[in-house]
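Field log, afternoon session.

UNIT: design team B
ACTIVITY: writing a sequence onto a fixed backbone
BACKBONE:
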């Protein structure tokens, strides 16, 4: 298209030159968007993925998993499968709660 004669109005011809080149390349909008938005966005996302995701998110998830495993190993000892033990735990917790409530009412807190 460069330097090509293009009819205008059916009777006049003019040379588009660099305007035709810009138009043919969509005014270089794709290149501009890639340079200003896409490439920096990709670099930022790679940085976040490499450091924040692996360093913070994965460490948090692994920490929660480790804490859950530790709590499970402690609670496992209490889970005997016998209803009498669960009833004893319930009564013991109820007595402890009543003692705390009585102590608060006596001390006035």
């Amino acid at each position: 298209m460069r330097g090509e004669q293009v009819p205008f109005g059916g009777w006049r011809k003019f040379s588009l030159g660099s305007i035709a080149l810009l138009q043919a390349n969509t005014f270089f909008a794709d290149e501009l968007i890639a340079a200003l938005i896409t490439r920096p966005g990709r670099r930022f996302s790679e940085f976040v993925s490499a450091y924040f995701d692996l360093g913070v998110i994965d460490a948090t998830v692994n920490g929660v998993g480790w804490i859950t495993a530790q709590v499970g190993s402690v609670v496992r000892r209490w889970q005997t499968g016998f209803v009498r033990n669960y009833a004893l735990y319930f009564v013991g917790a109820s007595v402890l709660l009543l003692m705390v409530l009585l102590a608060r009412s006596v001390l006035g807190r």
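LOG NOTE: Residues 5-63+81-107 form one domain.
NEXT ACTIVITY: expression trials, pending approval
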